[in-house]
Design a protein that fits this description.
The protein is mainly alpha-helical. 65% of the residues lie in helices and 0% in strands. The chain has a single domain, classed as Up-down Bundle (Heme Oxygenase, Chain A). It is globular and about 45 Å long.
Length: 219
């Protein structure tokens, strides 16, 4: 019988959904000139709420020996996102940004599982950080070209302390395959990664539909 590694299972189960078309459209518009700066600001605002939840869970999971294999201060994104919003919106950004309904659902799920179930924590950690690390360099350069940014405004995608993102991701995946979960737990983790993908896609799809009107509200 062929034994499929956890990372292979995760890759094979990552299937596009109908909503993914809207999600792809939103990001494509951003980097090809059909999206505007406010669309990008709305995206960064939603990342703030998601990463705030994940990094709060990271602090609570840091003492867990399994979770600790994946936690690294080099991955921390929240200070960079806060600096991005300070640059993009202004010093009052905390009074301005609001989570979309899809973002609130995503955050709720992270809070439900990531602080109490190590597999759930790793599922959401893997989905967010490896996704942004794997494609972050290219996305950052496209956004810089499109909106004239230097490093301000795109700090989320600037992993300055990770010189070789590909090697970092490979090491992370190797560690994931070495976690001694049984088949049932592996299946739960795979299902939670799929859930994280779905929740992420829902955020992008709502951004595409709303075109940046909902997440920024000034009095």
């Amino acid at each position: 019988m062929t034994v499929v590694s956890l990372t292979e299972a995760l890759r094979d189960r990552a299937r596009p959904r109908a909503e993914a078309q809207d999600a792809d459209e939103f990001m494509t518009a951003l980097v090809t000139g059909r999206g505007c700066r406010d669309d990008y600001v709305a995206l960064v605002a939603q990342h703030y709420f998601v990463y705030r939840a994940i990094e709060a869970a990271t602090g609570r999971m840091a003492a867990n020996p399994v979770a600790a294999r994946f936690i690294s201060p080099r991955l921390t994104r929240l200070p960079a996102i806060e600096a991005d919003l300070d640059f993009l919106v202004g010093p009052d950004w905390r009074d301005v940004v609001r989570p979309l309904a899809s973002t609130a659902a995503y955050v709720e799920r992270i809070e439900q599982v990531a602080s109490v179930w190590v597999g759930g924590f790793i599922a959401h950690h893997y989905t967010r950080y490896l996704g942004d690390l794997s494609g972050g360099r290219l996305l950052r350069s496209l956004l810089q070209r499109q909106f004239g940014f230097d490093t301000n405004g795109v700090g989320l995608y600037l992993f300055a302390e990770i010189a070789e993102p590909r090697r970092f991701c490979s090491t992370y995946r190797e560690a994931l395959d070495q976690v001694p979960w049984d088949d049932d737990e592996r299946a739960r983790v795979v299902a939670e990664v799929e859930n994280a993908y779905r929740l992420t896609t829902d955020v992008f799809a709502e951004l595409a539909r709303g075109r940046a009107t909902a997440p920024l509200r000034r009095a």
